[in-house]
Amino acid sequence: MAARAGFDCDVLVIGGGIVGLSTAYALTRTAPGVRVAVVEKEPGPGRHQTGRNSGVIHSGIYYPPGSLKARYALSGSAEMVRFCGEHGIAHAVTGKLIVAKDRKELPRLRALAERGRAHGIPVRELGPAQIREHEPEARGVAALHVATTGVCDYAAVAGQLARSAADAGAQVRYGAGVTAVDRRPWGVAVRTAPGEILRARALVNCAGLQCDRVARLTGDDPGMRIVPFRGEYYELARPDLVRGLVYPVPEPAFPFLGVHLTRGVDGGGVHVGPNAVPALAREGYGWSTVRPREVATTLAWPGAWRMAARHWRYGAGEVHRSLAKRAFAAEVRRLLPAVTDADLRPAASGVRAQAVLPDGSLADDFLIRRAPRAVHVLNAPSPAATASLPIGRAVARWALEALD
């Protein structure tokens, strides 16, 4: 299946985050004769969602049976641990606590326990005294201990995927943002910011925060829009307050897991967060980053207004916690009462590429659509890093089918 004359590659992957690089890695392993190229607008791999998260290897307990998130996270978590071990990437399987703060949350906690057992995940239900055995400073009426949750350095994983793909013959080009796509019956031609034209027989869109734009450049209607949500983190000044990972019981109406505490893979620092506030730019890592054209594009999407009408109370609380550190600390104290306002030191933020559908609903599952000569990954937030290796294989398989 070598590239035909006049083509620069067989499959062109747009996006050098962990999903795009996993797709290139899978292509080089499963179809060595296929020529692969990756274009990434940043100067290196994993500069956005991949490198700006809490580094958790999720067990899969949150995701409904039959969903893509459940399928890929369940297999991907164990595979990610093996990949890190094989390549000497920092990681640890720490387990975590999901803590019910009051009795109202007990039915949801029990439902999570049942779901975990249905998935074959080792979970143990704990009472208040047992919570303190695992996390002496944590408080709650009950908790689940999930043994298979871990942490790793996803930026290092992305770097290794890029090197492995390149060693197998893939071209990985940084500083090559996509400005135009011309799709024809024979394939696609892509223009990059430096002015280069790349011709490929099939395109894979793993552009994350820009994925809906790339889909439209390709001539496809993605049927959704990315609405960016910034997740703001703090670092705990007294990391000895937390031994491992402490999570709240998530709200079922939202694809966000709530403010949690995560000891880093180095065993030293503890990240606290994130919240989820609307970002004023696709890559708006602070309130000061505002791109009016991008805000206008979001406001022009009817789904954004329907989402706001449905969830404005929740969103107002998140914005309040963003603007008032005291409110954020109060939320943390519901899990860890010993935390003071002074214990929270600002840390780097991330932005979640959240797909919003026309009816205003937040896409809860991974969303991957196939089109002639193209595969579009349109919703791949958490746990996509955990699940990136099986996601990459699936996308690679569809890309190979697009060649035919």
Features of the shown structure:
404 residues; alpha+beta; 8-stranded mixed β-sheet; 10 helices; 22 strands
Describe the overall structure.
By secondary structure, the chain is an alpha+beta fold. 32% of the residues lie in helices and 26% in strands. It is built from 10 helices and 22 strands. Strands 1, 2, 9, 10, 11, 12, 21 and 22 form an 8-stranded mixed β-sheet that branches. It has an 8-stranded mixed β-sheet with strand order 6-7-5-15-16-17-14-19, with helices on both faces. α8 crosses α9. It is globular, with a radius of gyration of 21 Å.
Average of pLDDT: 94
Count of DSSP strands: 22
Task: Give the uncertain stretches in residue-range form.
Answer: none
- Report the helical percentage: 25-40%
The largest sheet, given as strand count, sense and whether it forms a barrel, is: 8 strands, mixed
Oligomer: single chain
Q: How far apart are the first and last residues' alpha carbons, in Å?
A: 10 Å
**Tally the helices: what do you get?**
10
Strand content: 25-35%
Global outline: globular
Radius of gyration: 21 Å
Structural class: alpha+beta
